[in-house]
């Protein structure tokens, strides 16, 4: 049984999960705050959305769970913890994301 590291999950999400409105991966957008893998083969992912009313929120969360389960079948669970603290803002984006969106 091979359980992924948090960094392997982060790289998977970077490659596979995009915000459908901004067409940018959610890692570079700064939406994923923390990833932990427990000794019970569970991924605990703490993340946020660009706003509480984000219409793509359910799609993004489902995509994180689906892609993580598909890539790492030895994980028993992928739990998403949605938080609004800290509240997301454009400063949380990577420099590459800011540049791509024209935010300086």
UniProtKB/TrEMBL annotation:
Organism: Litorilinea aerophila
PANTHER family assigned to the protein according to its UniProt record, in alphabetical order: FE-S PROTEIN MATURATION AUXILIARY FACTOR YITW (PTHR42831)
MIP18 family-like domain segment(s): 8-80
InterPro entries, alphabetized: Fe-S_Maturation_MIP18 (IPR052339), FSCA_dom_sf (IPR034904), MIP18-like (IPR002744)
Pfam families documented for this protein: FeS_assembly_P (PF01883)
Protein name: Metal-sulfur cluster assembly factor
